[in-house]
Amino acid sequence: MITIPYLTALTTYFSYGLLFSFGQFRDFFRKIFDWWHASNLQGYAPICLGLEDFYIRRLYLRIQDCFGRPICSPPDAWFDVVERVSNDNNKTLKRTTKVSRCLNLGSYNYLGFAASDEYCTPRVIESLKKFSASTCSARVDGGTTSLHTDLEECVANFVGKPAAIVTGMGYVTNSAILPVLIGKGGLIISDSLNHNSIVNGARGSGATIRVFQHNTPSHLEKVLREHIAEGRPRTHRPWKKIIVIVEGIYSMEGELCQLPEIVAICKKYKAYVYLDEAHSIGAVGKTGRGVCELLGVDTADVDIMMGTFTKSFGSCGGYIAGSKELIEYLKYTCPAHLYATSISPPAAQQIISAIQVILGEDGSSRGAQKLACIRENSNFFRSELQKMGFEVLGDNDSPVMPIMLYNPAKIPAFSRECLKQNVAIVTVAFPATPLLLARARICISAAHSREDLNKALEVISRVGDMVGIKYFPAEPQKQQLEENRVKLE
């Protein structure tokens, strides 16, 4: 867990308190002035109400130029960012004709497949000509092509499961499938920092939900033991089903799941394991097969494997892999399969081609080189940031690197200054993170060269000094160490 320095926490609370006070002060006077003007909505309840509306108006809109920046090129190592202007203090933003060529440190393009690829792109174009851009139908109607069945076989073989089902959207894969897997009388035990799609899916299931401390197997065992002993609320009957949900790499922390320990605990208490590999599949492991391969866990011990194609594979959609009985059941019951339009054929072909490259089935070693490159780039960038004095979350081999910002004023300052120097950074704040834990999330790609990373490090270091987010003392450079040795001699 993150330990916030006392002074940093104090100044962050003070900053939010100041923003809140001035916002409430302005709202008070706005109500007085609005009282004199007749409203056409007298008698109606406000459609936007409460602190959420206040937060959007008084905090988010002031810095919304840092979010949702439009791009006009493929999200490769470098991309084109459209410049925007505002004449009303950021309430509205207008696009201009100006474009900035920026180093991309925000996209999930882990293996570099998001841009044109010598193997994937020609095959995607062929599939577009053959199958069109969309099936315009759900899978159970007229939306299943030969590419969809090939994709499901390909994914199942890649992740090491007997069967798989694919959906057209990664978010929906969690939110629509969890209510099908478990319902009233079941128990979901979820990591406290699981993705919002898991949270919404769990809430929609009707099952009882309990949370364990982030990535802490000992607390998971405690929660499991207590709830198995107590049984269901009021009746104390045994639970119909227990599912433990974790992520392979946590998207806001960059941490690897402690999967071997969690699997061992779930085996002990006969609970199912649901593993979300949205950020880990294709990005980690010797052959890109995710955290199971990286941490030495047998995929047979993970009951439900979920992942998305929006990161490492440069496409869209998601999948669930498991036993043949499970997948057959989902095909008859899952709304994402029965009612939603199927994944587009070109997107399906992109995924198949990307997996073939990763496995070396294209006749080259580019897949192995990409996997080695993403690992080297991630570890190099993380170690350099730490040497500079930044507080960086996450584990080695993870391509997700959050840099802690904390203070609300540092969120737009860091983002805008980096953009001025042609480095595109994603900043994340409340409600996506807890109020005190604002951060900049960097995503490294195999498409980044060492020169790209060095440029990014120079800019981030310079802006970090300017904004004041180097919370640890920097390590002395080799030159300084050698000079000190000479002086001593």
Concise synopsis of the structure shown:
With 489 residues, the chain is of the alpha/beta class.
Biggest β-sheet description? 7 strands, mixed
Question: Roughly how much helix do the residues carry, as a percent range?
Answer: 40-55%
* Element-by-element helix/strand order: HHEEHHEHEHEHEHEHEEHHHHEHEEEHH
User: Helix- and strand-based class?
Assistant: alpha/beta
Supply Rg.
25 Å
The termini sit apart by 44 Å
For the secondary structure, the number of strands is: 13
Mean pLDDT over all positions: 92
Shape label: globular
- Unreliable runs: none
Physical arrangement of strands within the biggest beta sheet: 3-9-8-7-6-4-5
SS summary, helix count? 16
Percent of residues in β-strands: 5-15%
Main location: endoplasmic reticulum
Membrane topology: Single-pass membrane protein
Cofactor: pyridoxal 5'-phosphate
Domain Aminotransferase class I/classII large: 102-460
Give a written overview of the molecule.
The chain has 489 residues and is of the alpha/beta class. The chain has helices at residues 6-35, 50-60, 120-131, 146-159, 170-181, 196-205, 217-230, 259-268, 291-295, 324-333, 335-338, 345-358, 366-388, 410-420, 450-467, 478-488; strands at 78-85, 94-104, 163-167, 186-191, 208-212, 241-247, 272-276, 304-308, 318-322, 400-404, 423-424, 426-428, 439-443. The protein starts with 5 loop residues before the first helix and ends with a helix. The model has no long low-confidence stretch (mean pLDDT 92). Residues 102-460 form the Aminotransferase class I/classII large domain.
Describe how the helices and strands are arranged.
Layout: H1 6-35, H2 50-60, E1 78-85, E2 94-104, H3 120-131, H4 146-159, E3 163-167, H5 170-181, E4 186-191, H6 196-205, E5 208-212, H7 217-230, E6 241-247, H8 259-268, E7 272-276, H9 291-295, E8 304-308, E9 318-322, H10 324-333, H11 335-338, H12 345-358, H13 366-388, E10 400-404, H14 410-420, E11 423-424, E12 426-428, E13 439-443, H15 450-467, H16 478-488
Keywords: Lipid metabolism, Pyridoxal phosphate, Sphingolipid metabolism, Transferase
Protein name: Aminotransferase class I/classII large domain-containing protein
Cofactor: pyridoxal 5'-phosphate
